[in-house]
Amino acid sequence: MRELENQLAQSESSQVVDVNEQRVLQDVGIYRYSHPLDSSPAYKERLAELNRRMDDMVKSGTAIESADMFTWNGSLANGRKLVRDLGKLMLRAYNAEADNCVRALRNANVQTASKRLDRSAAAIEKLGSMMEMRINPAFHMLRIEELLLVADYQVKVQEERERAREEREMLREQRRAEAELKAERERLDKEREHYITVLARLREAGDESAARDLESRLQEIDQAIESNDYRIANVRAGYVYVISNVGAFGPDMVKIGMTRRLEPTDRIRELGDASVPFLYDTHALFFSEDAVTLENELHRAFAERRVNWVNSRREFFFATPEEVRTVLSEKIGGLLEYHDVPDALEYVQSRSSWPPDVRPKSL
Prior knowledge:
Residues 248-331 form the Bacteriophage T5 Orf172 DNA-binding domain. This protein has 363 residues and is α+β, with helices and mostly antiparallel strands. The chain has eleven helices and six strands. Helix 1 runs parallel beside helix 5 (137-204) and helix 5 packs antiparallel against helix 6.
């Protein structure tokens, strides 16, 4: 038993250091898993197995320790009954406190909860000192492990929800792109039929000059249909964009993303919805036959400047548009059009109406 106490002491001392380190990381939005598992169901299975072990200790009467030779009114039997009854009461109080700690976990902060449970175990040992009563250190370690697992489970569930939300958004974006491309193909087909009909009439009327002009336009439509069909068939084709929002994030942060939308500016306008105070400024829009690879290469180039180190699907980076232009030029060669300085019209116009104490000094 003394060996278990030493293990508990060592575990608690090492855990305090680890939890303190986690607390510092959590303050900046980074959570380190105590028990890394692949998914939330895996955590639920581990918790179920842990609960079975705790139940076994309770049923076997080993969850709480106490003296075996305590007498009451000169009776050893009465003393043992008193110890058993009081032990059940103490264990119930301890488990109630542990359950409250589990329910009260927020933001994966196990430091406060584990200390609270330590104090509960210490209080029981102090109150039961006459009967040498205390929570079994092995049982206490199981309940501390439960706290860590529940904290990990909560974070994993949040990650899975965020991933599912982003996947749904990607699917909606893909469906919008497919719908736009399909509608564009239908429009081009109708326009082509119209031009073919008019071209036939012009030739019947002998107007070869107008017919030649119409043939040139017909060739342009055929090229547009070919390009549209290519984008429908090639899911990796699309636009890579570089945008910023000075009013929301400051001058040294950009978002690097890609879209398959027929009109990429529609996607950028959607990003500037009510979730940010101002519209985004577009620095570059580049069509690529493999936009997915190009986007990933840009993300890798600025990986060390990522804003969100917890969720890699957040595409914001601490970089200036000029720095991104340099890297983008290396990847694709010359850029026909790139804007280093954002217009930030809404931000500039709004800034003059802000109270003096919150108004920034410069753009």
